Fold this sequence. Notes:
23% helix; 6 strands; 6 helices; four-stranded mixed β-sheet; alpha+beta; hydrolase; HNH_nuc; elongated; HNH_5; two-stranded antiparallel ribbon
Amino acid sequence: MRTLVLNAGYEPLAVVSFKRALVLVMNEKATVVERVEGDPVVGLRGACDRPAVIILSRYVRVPGARRVPVTRRGVLRRDGNRCAYCGKAASTIDHVQPRSRGGKDTWENLVACCLRCNNVKGDRTPQEMAWTLRMEPGAPRGAQWTVRGTERADPRWEPYLALAA
């Protein structure tokens, strides 16, 4: 059981275990916004419903802009595991501007690619190959990228995650 934690301004911060959420609520550092009906938590002081969404009592300043780190898994996930050139299933990533020509490891320069297209392209640019990208690569956006644990989101979280998008 997991719980979505919202900042005092209803900004999604994190996903924590329901035990951690209960500790925050019992210490009056958070209040319950959404509950899971049925299957209550039984303790010495009685039974209480499991929290699905909690909101912090005080605003927590998030240091800096949340940047999603560039990873192979992230590029494949962003592109839906589809090749940016032919649309088939992708298993590798490709530098649009090859590293041998100064291409960097950035969201704007990396795309998911199938093994065949990656081998054919080599260290050339798509323009030299007369290929076009199926989509414009860029940094991913939305709560599912900045808030860890929202890949398998609870349906009760949707209204709160939509606010962050």
